[in-house]
Amino acid sequence: MSDEGSTPVKNEKLERILASFSGERSELIPILQRVQEEFGYLPEEVMKRIADFTRTPECTVFGVATFYAQFRLTPTGKKIIRVCRGTACHVRGSAKVLAEVEKRLGIRAGETTPDLEYTLETVACIGACALAPTMTIGGKTYGKMTTKKVAEVLGDYDRSAK
Ligand code: FES
C-alpha cells in the first residue's frame, strides 16, 4: 500500500537524536551535524523529519544542507580516500596520483564506489608537504605517492580491470 502524502517515516536512531533537542529552528545546524555523525550523510527522509521537528520549511532544511560543504546528501564509503591537491603535492605529480586512484576505483573525485567501500575526495593540504604527493585512506597518511604505490595501497581493489 502506498503511503503518499504521509508524514515522514520515524526512525529510532533519529528520534533518539531529536529527543536531545527542543525543536527550535536555531538548532537546525547542530541537529544536521549530529544526524550526519550518526548516519554518515543526510538522507532525504531524515531531512523531512528534521523540517517537521524544527517547524522549518523542507526547502530551508535542504537549502542549509546543500549550502554548507560539511554536509553530505549521499552515503559515503566505509573508507574515505583523500588525495592532496595542494601546491606542494601538485608540483610533485598529485594529478597523476588522483587519476590512478580514479581509474582503479572507477569513480571520480567526489564520488563513492557503488559497493560503498570507498569515497574519493581531494583536499587542499593535509599538512605533510614534506611527503608530497600525499593521500590518506581512512585517516592513514601515505606519502611520496606514485601510480605504482597507488596500486600497492589499494591492493586488489581494482575496478579498472572490470
Ligand atoms: S600540499 Fe599536499 S600535504 Fe601539503
User: Could you tell me the number of beta strands?
Assistant: 4
Describe the largest sheet: 4 strands, mixed
Total tally of structural domains: 2
Strand order of the largest sheet: 2-1-3-4
Ligands, ions, cofactors: FE2/S2 (inorganic) cluster
Mean pLDDT: 90
Number of helices: 7
The best one-word shape is elongated
Distance between the termini: 40 Å
CATH architecture verdict of the largest domain: 3-Layer(aba) Sandwich
Residue share in β-strands: 5-15%
The CATH top-level class label of the largest domain: Alpha Beta
Radius of gyration: 19 Å
Q: Outline the low-pLDDT stretches.
A: 1-6
Order of helices and strands: HHHHEHHEEEH
Could you say which structural class the secondary elements and strand pairing correspond to?
Answer: alpha+beta
